[in-house]
Task: inverse folding
DNA sequence: GTCACCTGCTAGTTTTTCTTGGCATGTGCA
DNA sequence: TGCACATGCCAAGAAAAACTAGCAGGTGAC
């Protein structure tokens, strides 16, 4: 329930992260219940390498989180679950966030954040 | 106030469109008041060609709309203003949208739009 | 030992998006 | 006529994101 208005850069990262069909499906699947990487890859019909890349992006954006666990038979499984994010997108919220964007394209390191 | 849940493809388009610092600033500026292209380009400090491209994307995503008008001195000015969009981003809304995604990467032409 | 299943990383290609620069059109004004 | 400002579009290069393929390590079971 982090409905606290994000900074422009965070909003940008969140939007860019969600703006991908695979990642949207990943979030959808994990919303149902948590899953481990290989399981999810099979379910979505994409390669593990690709999925890991998407999971990495989702995780750095704080939308999902992964935890390494040992299954009963001793195998290492990395389980992922969704974070309880909440972002409201309206002209006002976007305008507010835009004002805190770090200079040019987010290259410059600003005070914000 | 179109808080009606978008289809997966529409959500994807909306997210992809907003996931850009220039477009975020454009929305922010237009939220204040409407503006014509050249005016906005000067204000944001970007080239007109670039801005037009961003405006085109924003418009096809339905986030802004432009109207050609004739100024008092007979010049053609294209004024843009923001649309009153509203999108809620939470695991549930994302999951719901993901289920309506057109097959592979949205390449397939579906019924929607 | 060999197979099946789990994780993680990286180099390199392909694809998409972003940007720039130039060119064309039209109006009013000195 | 030449200048200032408006619009629109396109070709081509630059940059960023997506994806593939391959290799590494580890455990349990037959």
Result:
């Amino acid at each position: 329930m982090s409905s606290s208005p994000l900074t422009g850069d965070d909003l940008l990262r969140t939007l860019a992260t969600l703006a991908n069909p695979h990642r949207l499906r990943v979030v959808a699947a994990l919303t149902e219940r948590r899953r481990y990487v290989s399981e999810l890859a099979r379910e979505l019909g994409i390669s593990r390498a690709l999925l890991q890349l998407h999971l990495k992006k989702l995780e750095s954006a704080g939308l999902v989180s992964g935890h390494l666990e040992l299954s009963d038979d001793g195998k290492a499984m990395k389980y992922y679950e969704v974070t309880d994010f909440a972002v409201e997108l309206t002209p006002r919220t976007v305008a507010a966030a835009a004002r805190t964007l770090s200079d040019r394209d987010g290259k410059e390191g600003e005070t914000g954040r």
Summary: Residues 105-113 of chain A have pLDDT under 50 and may be disordered. The longest helix of chain A spans residues 48-60.
